[in-house]
Amino acid sequence: MQRTLLLLSLFFAAMNSPARADVPLVIPNPASVVARSGVFVVNDRTRLVIPPHDAGARRAAIFLSDLLDRTGAVHLKRSFGSPHGMEIELQRGLVPTNGTESYQLEVLASRILIRAPTDAGLLYGALTLWQLIPPGTAGQSATLPAILIDDGPRFRWRGLMLDSARHFQSPAYIRQFIDWMALHKLNMLHWHLTDDQAWRLQIKRYPRLTDVGAWRVPAGAAAAKDLDLSTGRPRQYGGFYTQQEVRQLVAYAAQRNITIVPEIEMPGHAVAAFVAYPELGCAATPHREVPSDWGIYSDPFNLDESTFRFLENVLTEVMQLFPSPYIHIGGDEVQTGQWVASAEVQARARALNLQDPQQLQPYFMQRISRFLLAHGRRPIGWDEMLQPGLPAGAIITSWHGISGGVAAAEQGNDSILSPWPTLYFDNRQSDSPLEPPGRGQVITLQDLYSFEPMPAQLGTQQQPHILGIQGDIWTEHIRTEAQLSEMTFPRAAVVAELGWSNPERRDWNGFLDRLVGLQLRYRALGIPHSESVFAVRTSATYDLRVETAQIQLANQSGYGEIHYTLDGAIPTAASPLYVTPLSVPMPAQLQAATFAHDVQLSPTLQQQVSVDHALHRVSQELKLCTQKIPLSLEDDAPVDGPRAVFLIDIENPCWIFEHADLDYVDTARVAVGQVPFNFQIGADRDKIPLLPPQTHDGEMQIRLDSCEGPLLASLPLTPALQSDAVTELPPAPLRGPAGIHDLCLRFTQASLDPMWAIDWIQLLRQTLPALQGTH
Ligand code: ACM
Q: Between the chain's N and C termini, which has fewer beta carbons within 10 Å?
């Protein structure tokens, strides 16, 4: 069958199933859907009628027809004027779900009508219709069941936070990102523009903020050696957004009902600004270069009047660029040590009658808040800003759980919920070795879907203070735009549904049904996205004596059917269906994928089933000894091209190879990498165990049963010193007792930086003739 027909069969199966008649496959799920009788047939002759002189309706129409074209669906002819019947009409008018983003979508046998009072409503009605028309119907007809949708969002803040400071995304990418947000009816882009590691927004009055503050040498030996031929110094990483680019992005977003809310961080997370203008800081030894460590620096702005003037001047330009009613001013993770140590700051505090250094931060944030309020903008701060004296108009982004949001609502301040770790998109989506780098904790799509935004403890008086929710894409570990997209989609679709749909309109299995259609559209639009929820994972137990594996196949959600092959053929929906664990004689090649309605939903898993594979682990398949700061950390080398990703607890680099079958094993092969230790973790750094090296450059040690067990093998690291990327060490003899054992893997090293990491380990058995001799 052709692909388009496959897609059609999926959609018609879903659409025409009586059990589903009231569930159109739309994300976010509409507020109210009533099935009607009859159908409307859309094809290439269907006109899309736009009221004359209505720019908003015209934009919605262009959106719809363009999206249909780009997803290979029927092509609609746009026309202006009065409708003749058998057409799709966009119409201004009041709708029952009376909100500024509401719309009504009516599919009748005689016509389709999208009605809304606002541009936003017309756009959202058009986006819903886009999802009702199957992709892959170009040149054909699509039959839509008659239906009445009355729709509007539950929350007015449905957002994503994009960290463009830690890593920079091009304006062209951000433009795409805005388009992709709009598809999900997301309406708030919180843009994290400044931090310790970069200042990314052009400020005309203070050009050094971007001339200096937007550029840094990345951490690590590879970057230090990567010389810029024009300067003879290490090449700098960075970039910034000019005011013209920002104006264009703001206008582009506005046409898609997206408000860009800029964030200018203060009083902490601002080292890049202090490097540009040292007079703003109060460190005893100021930074001379924009730093490349992640974590929490101890530097805040000082409290000089000239510093407040600087911030007000910056915010004045920010307000000219961003018409947003809201301006985010950070306020998180402020270290007060430098304030306490600074005679000038202490003198200012006494003059201000602030006895306690803990009062300085509220003073700082409230002073800036009042400045913004006086200029008609509402300040937003991370939940540390919730302190006595906060002005009523200020808004809290709750990230320490939802408690900041609850406390804000109880005292009459609005809040946005973005609790770590569930709403933090830098966490891994599964423990697969194929995931992009990120924080090591796994937050599945279902973990996110299970988040209910309205705190149960709030009464009806307080509930309106919860403006909505936001997913935060922190980019310390998200270096590339492709990685960023994959960490964001489809999680953005979940945030959209949580922010839009009432609890009774949400259910996980129904969401997965609808995600199937959205994923096909992601593929058609070329949106890099994660398919981790459908990806096939294996768990195997091996009996190496009889060279047989018991293999279980599953995907994270349990959705769809898994089909597999063992003969090297590419699996299709016609391949054997996985039902119970497979007993596989070795060697074999296993391939498997998830399918539903004949459509492949996951990448094809390819896995050798062999003795060698049974004795092989990549870092993500090892168990971390502890989970203090687990990261799936990207190597710093090579400078260009793909880099390895190591699962490592940077506060305790220690791994367990669980259940290793040591029968006949006589050799270990290990590949290792070195990563810069570029983490500001304060005094915790001194608690990281360093095992003393036994040879000059240290070793990788393998111990039996536990990290205190006998040393089975010790692999000198000298050969790996020459490469900043991954090095396979020379094979080392490893002979342990027969049977199944855990192995503890650690490094010895004299100092923390760079830190060694395991890429993979392979245990090898005696060669076959010797093996036969032992039987
Ligand atoms: C934050 O994660 N520091 C807001």
A: C
